Amino acid sequence: MRSLYLAGGIFFVGLGAIGAALPILPTVPFLLLAVFCFARSNPAWERKILDHPQWGPQVRNWTERRAINRRAKVMAIGAMATGAAVTYLTLGHPWYWLSLAILLICGSWIWTRNE
């Protein structure tokens, strides 16, 4: 079981790294999943993520206080709004409504989290 958690942690770190380069894909949610997996398989790697200067504070804010800082909220909602606009311009109706629903549901959930 430990090796499955380790493989999952590595997989989620990889997705987080891709998310750091692509503006549409999130980074921190994948790192949260990686921390969860590494806590059960490799605590040293969990500590590396938590101590990372860029991503560590955001991951710790969520794991300790269930909080998202304002800048991250604005960036996440902005990325979802950009995705909705791109969907409108490229796919149009009815796909735009799905993208808009995701923006409204997920965006309102993100905005109401602690800071």
Commentary on this structure:
The chain has 115 residues and is mostly helical. It folds into two domains: 2-65, no CATH class; 70-111. 77% of the residues lie in helices and 0% in strands. The longest helix has 21 residues, at 70-90. It starts with a helix and ends with a helix. The relative contact order is 0.11.
Entry summary:
This protein has helices at residues 2-21, 28-39, 43-50, 56-65, 70-90, 95-111.
Structural category is mainly alpha
CA-atom Rg in angstroms: 16 Å
What is the overall pLDDT average? 91
Helical content band: over 70%
* Number of individual domains: 2
Total count of helical runs of at least 4 residues: 6
Unreliable stretches (pLDDT < 50, length at least 5) are: none
The largest sheet, given as strand count, sense and whether it forms a barrel, is: none
Summarize the helices and strands and which ones pair or pack.
Blueprint: H1 2-21, H2 28-39, H3 43-50, H4 56-65, H5 70-90, H6 95-111
Helix pairs in contact: 1-2, 2-3, 2-4, 5-6
